[in-house]
Design brief:
By secondary structure, the chain is α+β, with helices and mostly antiparallel strands. The protein contains four helices and two strands; from the N terminus they run H-H-E-E-H-H.
Length: about 100
Amino acid sequence: MADRRLSVRSSIPTFERLDRESRRRGQSRSELARTLLDEGLRMAARPGITFRPGPLGRRPGRIDGLAVWEIARVFTRIDASAEELVQKVCPDRVE
């Protein structure tokens, strides 16, 4: 995927926090800013999801618990249709 350049102004305290965190992670400021911007946009589109470090890098997960891959693993092991799952989870749902 091709990259495009983006210039952003920030307050001095924000820039300094970005600088400290980039050094702590061993990434450039640009790499960290790109990661945080991408994750922030993804979180805004999917409330309840956050990103946390894992053994293979940062991964999405529920704010209150499991990683997305763990949730997906549970659903792939359930022998039911999507509609049956919805009925089990939300029995009072009206269509």
